[in-house]
Amino acid sequence: MTTAPSSFVKGLEGIVAAQTEMSHIDGTAGILEYVGISIGDLSKHSTFEETVFLLWNKRLPNSSELGSFTSDLRANYALPEGFVERISSLPTSAEPMHMLRTMVSALAMYDDNPNDNSVEAARAKALKILGCAPAIVAAFDRHRRGLAPVEPDTSLSFSANFLYMLNGEKPTDAMTRAFDICMITHADHGLNNSTFTARVVISTLSDLYSAMTAAIGSLRGPLHGGANEGVMKMLNQIPTIDDAEAYVMGMIERKERIMGFGHRVYKAKDPRAAELMTLAKQLADDTGNSDLYEKSHKIEQVMEREYAAKGIYPNVDFYSATTYHCIGLKLDLFTPMFALSRIAGWSGHVIEQLADNRLFRPKAEYVGDHDVPYTPINDR
Ligand code: CMC
Question: Cβ(126) to ligand 1 under 6 A?
Fold first, then answer.
């Protein structure tokens, strides 16, 4: 039997599988833009609400458009009737990402028309999931702490409302802004694994809830959004800044992966890591966590010395760990925070996919045997 030359590309590296107008990455120059605007400018000047409008509409809103988009999002902060009781019945030992995946999936059953994939319906569903996902995470975290859920406050921004529902008290402006920058920097990122997952699911003309559910499942992996929790676990294992170099060198010698470093696309420092590094330093100083920031920075210096030649630099997850810790979030809420923001990107991509859909159906190269005789069961 003749075999054609293999076109198999492990991990689909370098394969262009979709077109998007949402985000652009130049991995060599270390550039990320949403609709042409640099992530640095958005982090400095924008809000999460404005950034979501930008991603979904491919332009910045004027003030009245932003006002009405913000009101629409706030109108979706509340969970459907009876939903919070479902959250309160979950095991308190559940991992928040498993919980979030399950409860986002459950939202489909509270939608009168979950399978409507028209642009208007998909946008309305995206707004619902984005608007109420923070309430799911906050209600679950309070449930496992034995606390009653806090009703959303529609006078608050997306970020302030989440921190309010989580902690039961209004956050400071500084904490709200820090959290908002995290949301902005995580909102979209080309055809990353979870976004690809969402596009693959919707390409069967399934439904937006299924696409979001699958994307959350993809995101939680330690090679993807789960890395931010891995970073924090590593930082917790390093007693002081003086131990950081030996700890990292030990990992390198054992050929272990250092979480928060490396990227399929970036061969330079991830620009989101640059933004979050500045934020992490400021927050760490303000919250008495300077030692944590210094440990992180030391690890970056060691990694730069050892791995820069291989194009391995900090990615978004490295400094987001310190940032989330300083905001007061528990370690196992770090990846759910990534999800809260990335729902914006996933749903934007799903809507793009629906607008020009073709079923994703690549091929697998068969590398097994041929012409194998069938052996009756008693002769095996
Ligand atoms: N620590 C140590 N070595 C690494 C790392 C790392 N973090 N990342 C890549 N390498 C090495 C890897 O061992 C391999 O070496 P060799 O060629 O000697 O076998 C080489 O670099 C290429 O690795 P790869 O796995 O083929 O590269 P990839 O493009 O498939 O991997 C990655 C990308 C993100 C999975 C990987 O860099 C990694 O595992 N990083 C740690 C996990 C992490 O931080 N993930 C978050 C990614 S950014 C946020 C997101 O989008 O989710």
Answer: no
